[in-house]
Amino acid sequence: MKNKPNGLFIVTAVLAMIYIFPFAILIINSLKTKFEILKDPLALPTSFNIDNFAEAFTRMDYLNAVGNSMFITLCGLIVLTIFPAMLAYYLEREPSKFKDIIFYILVASMIIPFQAVMIPFVSLFGKIGFLNGKVPLVYFYLGFGVALSTFMYRSFIAKIPKSLDESGAIAGASKFTVFWKIIFPQLKPITATMLVLNALWLWNDYLLPSLTLYQDDRTLPLMTYSFFGKYTSNYGLAMAGLVLSIVPIIIFYLVMQRQIVSGITDGAVK
Predict the structure, then answer these.
(1) Is 248 exposed, middle or buried (0-12, 13-18, 19+ CB in 10 A)?
(2) Model-level pTM?
């Protein structure tokens, strides 16, 4: 007697189809002409034409844009790993009466949307001449992303026995050495999780780069906007550009996905 599919399997299958549907439509329409998309966006293409990808590759200046995206994402991941991890270790281990105040301020800052501070942000940094360029953008990402990363790292560090710190101190190691040689290697699961979460954010962000980058420094999300004019939009090229934009980050996600669930479970839940 064959086993009937249970309710959980059916619900999972339906949810999977819902999540996959937008990506399927994106890929299907990237292979169609503008006329075919306007006629029926849900229909299959009459012929699998990759001309959209070739033209989008050129129009987006893809190699330059992907290089900019990779530089900003990699630098952002480095600073959003090193500084939050060190700050979290200080907030968890140092006997300071101000550490809880600092931590609560960081947590409170996470509920403030960027749009609420966007105008004063642009005005302030524009006046001091520190608004345009990839390096300032990485600095801004550190400021806007340090709170969440510190929160996750501190929750994970709290589960690491203090005896490891004491053993290193007895051996004559400094606090800096204890952190990098003993504590940080224990943070691999949460580090992998934060790398994935921050990479998705940094790679796909549109608003902040649109305020801070010159034309030659523009990232992939910004370059996909070039397919939308004031009066016309080339949806076929836009779809192909979007596919080209998400391929690198999907590859990164597939490589790192095994660590996501374990990292969130171990790091966020005490």
Answers:
(1) middle
(2) 0.84
